[in-house]
């Protein structure tokens, strides 16, 4: 899970070839392919890994709300490390939305509320969506991607931190 990933124009690179079988050196040698978008990151988690991590966080959230010296604590809202912050927004119905962000990134509270709005509009109002199931809705995906792009463009010191 901890290996780095290289992607060129969205296609993951494995050695000298992309996931769709293109030779990286030939691709980079063709001027028609420019501009090129190169991205480094981590391998995506599987659904099972995501579920496991979410259930661990849910347990920590519940323990945090019970052990908090603050009466009526709602649980963990943010975990901060040197390299990232994990932000959590729990709705009145108990659904938790989490965002991992750069520690300097501003506007995450607004982003979490926007994600909740997108979830309400495109998942909960979808007659084919079942609670506690993966969301399979193109409009949800498109609007979520747009919200994340807007938050990313706001930069690390944008308004509403």
UniProtKB/TrEMBL annotation:
Pfam families: Sybindin (PF04099). It is found in: Endoplasmic reticulum; Golgi apparatus, cis-Golgi network; Golgi apparatus membrane; Postsynaptic cell membrane. SMART domains: Sybindin (SM01399). Keywords: Cell membrane, Endoplasmic reticulum, ER-Golgi transport, Golgi apparatus, Membrane, Postsynaptic cell membrane, Synapse, Transport. Core component of the TRAPP complexes which has a function of guanine nucleotide exchange factor activity for Rab1 GTPase. Plays a role in vesicular transport from endoplasmic reticulum to Golgi and autophagy. May play a role in dendrite postsynaptic membrane trafficking. It comes from Steatornis caripensis. Its main location: endoplasmic reticulum. This is Trafficking protein particle complex subunit.
